């Protein structure tokens, strides 16, 4: 059962499934980005400053601005409206990214390629039917993913399942992922079909 805090979108994780995209979903993502940005900037100001090797100025205010710009969460939208053959998971104690490999040879990365990685291969004609997501009780970020397919197969659990969990069933062919990504990985995710 997912805590009320996670359901309501407070903190830094927001998991939601959508049948169609709307302007309200974009405004929700924008508000999540602004909340995440405040949290990231407060973390970077507490951690102290480090010298930027690409900066030619020694001004500490310029360095702080560069650190804030690098840690700002961003909205990412990934179109996956093709036949998926393999999904690569990049994870450690949280999920950093997902790379979708398609039948036509193209790929789409959602998040970052960080940490360990493993692949889950789909058979011809097999589709994603749902997933189980784990929300870290420490960071309120996506910490684990397990996939379910149309052939009744389950992937292994990628990442850690140490907090609240939610099961999501897709009511059709998965077409798009959207969400918020920061320097550490996936903050929030939405499924569109």
Class per helix and strand makeup: alpha+beta
What ranges have pLDDT less than 50 throughout 5 or more consecutive residues? Answer: 1-69
Please give the order of strands in the largest beta sheet.
1-12-11-2
Number of distinct beta strands: 12
Under CATH, the homologous superfamily reads: Jacalin-like lectin domain
Region (Disordered): 1-75
InterPro entries: Jacalin-like_lectin_dom_sf
Biased composition (Low complexity): 21-35, 42-61
Question: If you had to describe this structure to a student in words, what would you say it looks like?
Answer:
This protein is an alpha+beta fold. It has one domain (4-20, 73-192): Vitelline Membrane Outer Layer Protein I, subunit A (Aligned Prism). The protein has 3 helices and 12 strands; from the N terminus they run αβααβββββββββββ. The chain has helices at residues 4-7, 23-46, 60-71, and strands spanning 15-18, 74-79, 84-91, 95-102, 107-111, 116-121, 128-135, 142-149, 158-159, 164-169, 176-182, 185-192. The strands form 3 sheets. The chain has a 4-stranded mixed beta sheet with strand order 1-12-11-2, covered by helices on one side. A hairpin with an 8-residue loop joins strand 8 and strand 9. Helix 2 packs across helix 3 (60-71). The two termini are 24 Å apart. The model is unreliable at 1-69 (pLDDT under 50).
């Amino acid at each position: 059962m997912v805590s009320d805090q996670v359901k309501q979108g407070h903190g830094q994780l927001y998991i939601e499934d959508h049948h169609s995209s709307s302007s309200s979903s974009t405004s929700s993502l924008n508000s999540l980005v602004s909340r995440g940005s405040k949290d990231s900037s407060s973390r970077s100001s507490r951690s102290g400053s480090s010298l930027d090797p690409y900066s030619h100025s020694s001004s500490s205010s310029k360095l702080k601005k560069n650190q804030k710009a690098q840690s700002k969460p961003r909205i990412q939208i990934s179109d996956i409206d093709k036949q998926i053959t393999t999904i690569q998971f990049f994870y450690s104690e949280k999920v950093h990214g997902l790379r979708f490999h398609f039948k036509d040879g193209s790929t789409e990365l959602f998040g970052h390629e960080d940490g360990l990685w493993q692949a889950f291969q789909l058979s011809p004609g097999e589709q994603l039917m749902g997933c189980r997501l784990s929300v870290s009780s420490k960071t309120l970020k996506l910490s684990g993913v397990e996939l379910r397919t149309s052939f009744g197969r389950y992937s292994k659990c990628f990442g850690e399942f140490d907090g609240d969990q939610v099961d999501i069933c897709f009511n059709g062919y998965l077409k798009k992922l959207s969400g918020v990504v920061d320097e550490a990985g996936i903050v929030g995710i939405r499924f569109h079909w």
